Amino acid sequence: MPLARLLALVICLAACIGIGIEFQNLLGKGQSLIGAVWSLAGYFTILTNAIVAGVFGAIAAAAGRTQKPRTVAGISAAIALVGVVFALLLEGTRPLGGSVAVSDFLLHRFTPVAVPLYWLLFTRKGALTWRDPLLWALYPLAYLGYAIARGLSEGRFAYPFIDVGAIGWMQAAINAAAIGAAFIAAGQVMVFVDRLLARR
Length: 200
Fold this sequence. Notes:
By secondary structure, the chain is mainly α. 78% of the residues lie in helices and 0% in strands. It is built from 8 helices and no strands. It has helices at residues 3-28, 33-40, 44-61, 69-90, 99-122, 132-136, 138-154, 164-199. The longest helix has 36 residues, at 164-199. The chain starts with a helix and ends with a helix.
C-alpha cells in the first residue's frame, strides 16, 4: 500500500476508534443508543473527526481518486482548529484516565496533526484560492449557530467559551469572533503555502 493511502487509512481508523471510545463510554454511563449519538453530535470535535473518518476512509479505499485538494485542505483547517482550541482553551477541563485518555489523544492531538500533515505531503498543490478560507469558515460558523441554539434549548453548552448563560452574549461573541478570525488567518497561510509549494 502506498504511503499516502496508508496514512489515510491510519487517520480514518484513529478518528473511528476515538469516536467509538467516546460512544462506548456514554453507553457505559447508562445512556441509550440514540441518546449517546445525540450527545456526541453536540461537539465540534466529534463532528469534525467523523468527517475526517469518512473522507480519509474514501481516500484510502479509492487510491486517492476521490481526493480533492480543496476538500482535504478545508478539513485540515477544521481539524487543526479542534487541536488548537483544545490546547488553548479546553485542556484540563475534564478528568482523563484509561480509555478517555486514548480518545483524547486520538481526537484532539493525533488527527489535528496527521490530517494537515497529509495535506502538506500528499495533496496536489496550486488548487487553492484566497477565498477558500472564507468558504471553509462556513462550517464552524454553522456549527456555532447550531451549538448555541442547542445550548439554549437544552440548558447546557458543549463548550464554555460559547456558554452565553455563564459568560454572556458579548463575551461569547468576542470569543467566537476571535476564533473565527484566527481560523481564516490560518487558512490564508495554508493558501500561501499551497501556492509557494506549487511554484516549486
